[in-house]
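Re: How this chain folds, sequence and tokenised backbone to follow
Notation: Tokens come from a learned vocabulary of local backbone shapes, not from coordinates.
Start of record: The labelled sequence and token lines come straight after this line.
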Amino acid sequence: MPKHGEKPEFNKARCLAFVRRLWDLDELAMFHHPVSATELPDYHTVVKRPIDLSTIQRGIENGTYTAEAEVQNDVALMIANALEYNAKGTKWHKQALTFRKTYADLARQSGMAVDVDDIYIPTAGFKDDESSLRRAEKHNREDLGAILQELETEKEVPLEELRAKYQRLEKGEVQSGTKNVSNDNEEKKSEESDEESEFSDSDYSDEDEDGSDYSDEDEEEDDDDDDDDDDDDNEQ
């Protein structure tokens, strides 16, 4: 890269040597000449800026380029077009991948300076991934809109119903709690009644025992009194 204020470096011989190396590497001759619209009618629909080696060579010779970096940029564009148009796995796509890996080295071998920041060429797969992400984002936004619409619809309709259900549920819980309290009170009363009954029976039996003892003593005293009376009668 030229420094600020310096004229960009351009050497016609180096640029032409670079193009010749690329030409020789192109075993399929897919980059030699412009793509024919007759042979590939859809090519110019897919590829917006077509470029090829013969066009680049002519531009070098005619002075169209003013910097070596411009030549390298057009070569990179040529490779990117091939990766975009040709299907993965085809010989055309495979050769474009080979060019992408080696074109910077060929430029250096030709004596050209190469800026590593400018040599990256995205593949069609990378572009496909970007398109997929955009489609996914759009789809998710549409789904989110539908979900929000459903939530809004649900919010308007059952609000009073939910309140009524909640009140009925709350009332049922209170009644259930009251029943439980009543049952507890009844059980408590029953237990107290049983305790009182046991206490009464115990007192009653104690009284009977005491009463029985008392009556026996009285009978003995009565017998003694009768004996005394008999003695008195005998003495008389």
Notes: Helices lie at 12-25, 43-46, 53-62, 68-85, 91-109, 124-156, 159-235. Residues 202-215, 229-236 have pLDDT under 50 and may be disordered.
